[in-house]
Structure formats: C-alpha cells, structure tokens
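Dear Dr. H.,

I hope your travels went smoothly. While you were away I took the liberty of generating a structure for the chain from your last submission, since the lab meeting agenda had it listed for discussion. I wanted you to have the full record in hand beforehand rather than looking at slides cold. The sequence, exactly as received, is reproduced here:
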Amino acid sequence: MTHRPGKIKDVIQVPMTRPRNIFEIHRQDGFDEAYGRLWNIFRHELNIGAHQ
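The corresponding predicted structure, in token form, is as follows:
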C-alpha cells in the first residue's frame, strides 16, 4: 500500500510453498526474492513519509 492516501501499490505473488514455518522461512527457496522486492517498495514509501 502507498502512504497517504492508502492505495494498493502492487500485488506480489509469494513463490513459497505452504505451510510456512516462520522459524525457517528465511531458508526457503524464493524468500530472498520476495523479501528484496517487498523492501524496495517499503523503502520508497518510508522515504515519502519521512519528508512530509
């Protein structure tokens, strides 16, 4: 979601199988890709909010 006004910015398919073990998820194939993509979006939105 975007900062304000809150709108859907992107829909991301998470390429990891279920069920997901939260204690081992960082070792699962696809985690690094999903994590990096999400943080690129978050970083942009957080920077927008910091300057207003």
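Two observations you may find useful: Helices lie at 31-50. Residues 9 and 24 are 28 Å apart (CA to CA).

With kind regards,
E. W.
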